[in-house]
Write a structure and sequence with these properties.
By secondary structure, the protein is α/β, with parallel strands linked by helices. The chain has one domain. Strands 1, 2, 3, 4 and 5 form a 5-stranded mixed sheet that branches. Helix 3 links the parallel strand 3 and strand 4. The longest helix is centred in the last third of the chain and has 16 residues. The chain is globular and about 40 Å long. The N terminus is likely disordered.
């Protein structure tokens, strides 16, 4: 029988991807905040957070992010593009979710998709 000292230990796998937390999001300008609080945006996120939508996920192309309704007014960001405009868009989404008394979950769930310049994409195809 193995004692506790002799028992093999299993190392926890480390993240093999980049993630981000709320502190990593950019500070929004007043125009971005105003847009985030627009009625159409708050209505959209309230509809997305409805109980019948639990488990659903959606890729928001304009934001470059994939979100999922995980219930109890919690929206989880699954992926976000690693460019500045997508991070601003995610910060705006956070502002909208907070306005409707919801919560946006980021790390450790969010995978940042590395930004690859268009020129690099073409080179990689050759």
């Amino acid at each position: 029988m193995l004692t506790q000292q002799q028992m093999p230990t299993r190392e926890e796998p480390k993240n093999q991807y980049q993630t981000l937390d709320h502190d990593d999001l950019p500070v929004l300008c007043i125009d971005d905040i105003t847009s985030s609080l627009d009625r159409s945006n708050t209505e959209f996120i309230l509809d997305f957070m409805k109980t019948e939508n639990i488990g659903r996920y959606l890729y928001l192309e304009q934001l470059g992010a994939t979100i999922q309704n995980v219930g109890r007014k919690v929206v989880r960001c699954l992926t976000v593009d690693g460019n500045e405009s997508s991070l601003v868009g995610l910060a705006m989404l956070q502002c909208t979710v907070r306005e409707v008394r919801g919560k946006l979950e980021l790390a450790p769930y969010t995978v940042v998709i590395p930004y690859v310049a268009r020129d690099q994409e073409v080179e990689n195809l050759d």
